[in-house]
Amino acid sequence: MFKLKFLVCVTVLLALGCCKSRNKPKSFEILKAPPSEIVVELGETLSVVCAAHGNDMIDPVVYWVKNITAKHDRPGDRIRVSGIGKAILYVEEVKAEDIDSYKCVIEDKCSGDKEEIIVDVVVPDETCEDVYGVGPVVYGATWHYKNWTAAVQDCLDKGLEIALPTSDAENAMLLANLKKSYKTHPNAQKFAHENWIWIGAHDMTHEGQWTSVITEELMSDVYAESKLPWGKNQPDNRKQPNNRFPEDQDVAGIHRGSGKWDDSFEHYKRPYACLCRPQ
Asked: Using CB atoms within 10 A of its CB, is residue 273 exposed (0-12), middle (13-18) or buried (19+)?
């Protein structure tokens, strides 16, 4: 009987503690937040600490989740890395399958408070290098999300130009390079649900007059064939359905499976390709 009364008292006290914590604005504080991006080389050791402390007596549960996609829009799969107050994502020797988007989840089971911290683990892009089995390329893919303007600038920052084919032959070469990179580059595996890659054409100056962002020449003047490789019913200059963004579809992307072009919104974030310098 004494043992039963003791257990009842403990249960009541824990329940009161939970109720008390619910009235607080925050039930835990983060002690060690992992960085948003970690660059590693294949074969290196990866060790990432995520830690938090409960404001009451009990620390929160901390665990790691993998496979949340490059857009961080999927629940992902919980991995066997968890603890009370701290969890360490540890990989002794990084392999291609470890290059992924992760999140550290901090959860107070008592109050229901929860926080998620996104961590992208990537290898160096080495955009135009013969690495990861990609082989020599004319166009180097960069498997990071950027809007069109940022993608153009990143290629420039690398001393390159954003990819822009000026013939069907060059378009076929770009498509072949994208397909090879997608199959072999470790950073590409989490982009399975992303089909479009930014290229350097726009009609921001005059609607319908597609122009090279590199030379500002009209594509109709520089493209070898009479028609640009637009997809079916493209470009269509579709409007934003919710009017959140004022711009029209004024920039171009290429489909990594078909090589067809599509007009799109500048603020969308996508991977992109740069034109590599001759070796």
From this structure: buried
pLDDT of 30 strictly over 80: yes
Structure tokens that stand for 87 in this block: 């969890």
In whole angstroms, how large is the CA radius of gyration of the chain?
A: 25
Distances (CA, A) of 100 to 39, 47, 55, 66, 183: 11, 14, 32, 7, 15
What the block records as the tokens of 34 is 């992992």
CA distance 137 to 128: 7
Over the stretch 46-84, which tens digit does the pLDDT of each residue have? 999 999 999 877 899 999 999 999 989 899 999 988 899
In what side-by-side order are the strands of the sheet with 101-107? 37-39, 114-122, 101-107, 61-66, 77-84
Please state, in angstroms and rounded to a whole number, the distance separating the CA atoms of residues 248 and 70.
Answer: 25
Please state, in angstroms and rounded to a whole number, the distance separating the CA atoms of residues 88 and 86. Answer: 7
Q: Hey, which residues does 107 pair with through a beta bridge?
A: 61, 114
| pLDDT 10s digits, 264-279 | 999 999 999 999 987 5
